[in-house]
Structure formats: structure tokens, C-alpha cells
Design goal:
Helix content is 66%, strand content 3%. It is mostly helical and 364 residues long. The protein has one domain. Strands 1-2 form a two-stranded antiparallel sheet. The longest helix is centred in the N-terminal third of the chain and has 43 residues, at 24-66.
């Protein structure tokens, strides 16, 4: 037997060991460390987005000049950008979990509603642009020119494919892997604010941008972030962004984010006050677009109720105690004993408390 002093020291050491797992300092340090890691991955991924954009533009320029593919420049740039973003995000994700599927990392999970989500986003994007152009058409301030050369029809196909690739690359860069890491670091609300401002800041580098265009780009970023938050996938946002850009550039012939190099069959110029036409930036810079984007966010939230429930809510885990316990051994033995007889075996369940007192008797 240990002496009293040694037993007391042994008990104190065991108490210290038992308290280690529940130490509040350690329990708080682990989430902070994990949030710091997500924040570092976010910063690194944004740096990679900037670098990949520059590399894709240079590679596409050299490739198009080498093989004389000037008309296909945007399509080639989109292909290079998608490849670089996918490769970079996959490498960063390997730091967190090595067995994560690539589609999950990029924000394009395989699901049965992917086409419906994409089509719903495309309908919201197309409807928003139509409503933005409608006041200009009613007032009569549009100057439209058509190009019907054979080359123009080929450019429509090439530019549609390029817009699909660029829209997907934009969603991967701003609502894909970097956005997911930022949500894990600071929460979905602040992450949405940061990404919307970052989306507007990068878009504001355009030479034709204005203050109203910057505000509208922030709201557009919030709309696209809402698409991710409601579905935890890029299908909805990709469809919305594609229809938005294709309607502006291909269908109506307006500049897209201040750039007019995607128009092929139709070229449109709006004449009138800048608050109505957006000036050189196009309909994306009109004051009317602010109200339309607020309405688009409301429509998106309403039309994605089922997907939000299916893909964003945690599954309900049943609780309580199991009610399928095994019967008592005496009952099982009596059942086995009566299996060979024709008469039924009756089992009486006796009360566990004394029955000598009636329920009508007064308590002492």
C-alpha cells in the first residue's frame, strides 16, 4: 500500500490528466486554429485566382496568335482559366482532405436537380436583363445595328461557348472554393459581404465603370452568393450568370461589364440619360437595375425553397431510447414450452407494486 502522501500525489496527477480533454483553453484553441487555416486557404485561393487570370490571358493570347485563332480568343482564355482554377483549388483542398472529389471541391456536386437549378438560374438572369432593357425600348432610346455576314453566325456559337466557360470560371473564383473557405472562417453573412465587395472591386477596374455600376455589381455579387447559400452548389449561379451575360451581349448587343467584344449579330447603343441607359457601361449601370436585383434576390429565395431544405439543412437524427428490447428469459422459456401444444399460453404480467391498498383508500 502506498503512503498517504504518495497516494494524494497520484490522485492529483490523475485529476490533472482527466481534466485535459475538457480544458476550455484547448477546446477554444482548436476552432480558432481551424478558422485560421480556412482564412489562410481563402487568401491563398484569391491570390491564385488573380495569378490564374493573368496566366490564362497570356496563354490564350500566345495560343491564338500562334494558330491564328483571333475569333476564338475568349473561348481559349476561358478554357485555360477553368483548367488553372481547377488545378489550383484541387491542390489547396488536398491540404484539408485528400479524398474530397474534384466536383465537390469546385462546387459542382453531382445531383439529380443540377439541370433544373441551372435552368432556374438562367430564367432569373434572362428575366432580369429583359426588364432592365424594357424601359429603354419603351422610351425609344435604342439604336440597333445588325450584322448578317456568315462569320457573324460562327461568332455567335463561339461567343456563347466562351460566355459559358467564363461564367463558370467567375462562379468558381468568387462563389466556389474561396467562398466556401471564407464561410468556414467568418460565417456566411460576413463572407457574403466580403465576396460581394471583392467582386465589385475587381469588376470596378473596368475603365467604363461608375459609382452606380459598382453598387449594382455588389448587389449582383450578393445575388450570386445567395444562389450558393440556397443550394450549396454552383449550378444555379452558373445558369444565372450565363443567361445574364448572354442576354446582354448576344441577344441585345449591349456591353457586358463595360466590354463590347461579345456582340456579333446585334450591336445596340442606348441614347439618353445615364441613370436610364447606364452610359458606356450598359444596362448593368442603370439605377433601375438596383430595384431589379433586389427583386431577383427575393425571387431566387422563393423558388429555391425545396433545394434549400434538401441541400442545406442538416438531416434530422432520431433520438430517445430504443424500445425494441428483448423479452424476459422466463417469457421466452414459457413460449418455447408451449410451442408443441394446441392450447394457447397465457402470460400474466403482475404489478410491481403491492395491491393490498385500494386506490380509493386515504393516504396515511
Amino acid at each position: 500500500m502506498l503512503p498517504l502522501r504518495e497516494r494524494a500525489a497520484s490522485n492529483q496527477s490523475r485529476e490533472r490528466i482527466s481534466l485535459l480533454p475538457s480544458d476550455p483553453n484547448l477546446s477554444e484553441a482548436r476552432p480558432r486554429l481551424r478558422r485560421s487555416l480556412h482564412l489562410a486557404l481563402f487568401v491563398t485561393s484569391i491570390a491564385w485566382v488573380v495569378a490564374a487570370t493573368q496566366l490564362a490571358a497570356r496563354a490564350a493570347r500566345g495560343f491564338s496568335i500562334r494558330f491564328q485563332l483571333g475569333d476564338e480568343f475568349l473561348l481559349i482564355e476561358a478554357a485555360f482559366l477553368l483548367f488553372l482554377l481547377g488545378a489550383g483549388f484541387a491542390m489547396l483542398q488536398s491540404i484539408m482532405a485528400r479524398n474530397t472529389p474534384l466536383r465537390e471541391t469546385l462546387g459542382l456536386p453531382e445531383r439529380r436537380t443540377a439541370r433544373s437549378e441551372w435552368a432556374t438560374g438562367a430564367a432569373i438572369g434572362w428575366g432580369t436583363i429583359v426588364l432592365a432593357v424594357l424601359p429603354m425600348a419603351l422610351i425609344g432610346t435604342l439604336s440597333v445595328r445588325f450584322w448578317t455576314e456568315p462569320r457573324s453566325f460562327w461568332l455567335v456559337v463561339v461567343n456563347l461557348a466562351a460566355i459559358a466557360g467564363l461564367a463558370l470560371a467567375s462562379e468558381m473564383a468568387f462563389r466556389g472554393y474561396p467562398y466556401q473557405r471564407l464561410i468556414e472562417a467568418i460565417g456566411p453573412s460576413w463572407a457574403t459581404v466580403v465576396m460581394a465587395l471583392l467582386f465589385a472591386a475587381i469588376g470596378g477596374f473596368n475603365q467604363n465603370g461608375s459609382r452606380s455600376a459598382t453598387v449594382i455589381t455588389v448587389l449582383l455579387g450578393a445575388l450570386l452568393c445567395s444562389a450558393w447559400l440556397r443550394t450549396h452548389g454552383l449550378w444555379l449561379g452558373w445558369g444565372l450568370r450565363f443567361a445574364w451575360m448572354a442576354s446582354l451581349g448576344i441577344l441585345f448587343g449591349f456591353p457586358v461589364n463595360g466590354l463590347d467584344n461579345v456582340s456579333s449579330l446585334v450591336q445596340t447603343r442606348a441614347i439618353g440619360p445615364e441613370w436610364l441607359t447606364g452610359g458606356d457601361f450598359g444596362p448593368e449601370g442603370t439605377i433601375w437595375m438596383v430595384l431589379l436585383l433586389i427583386g431577383a434576390i427575393a425571387v431566387l429565395i422563393r423558388t429555391t425553397r425545396e433545394w434549400a431544405w434538401e441541400y442545406t439543412h442538416k438531416p434530422i437524427v432520431p433520438g430517445g431510447y430504443p424500445m425494441d428490447g428483448a423479452p424476459p428469459a422466463a417469457h421466452t422459456a414459457m413460449e418455447k414450452a408451449g410451442q408443441g401444444t394446441k392450447a394457447p399460453i397465457l402470460v400474466q404480467i403482475l404489478p410491481s407494486t403491492s395491491q393490498t391498498r385500494s386506490v380509493n383508500d386515504d393516504l396515511p
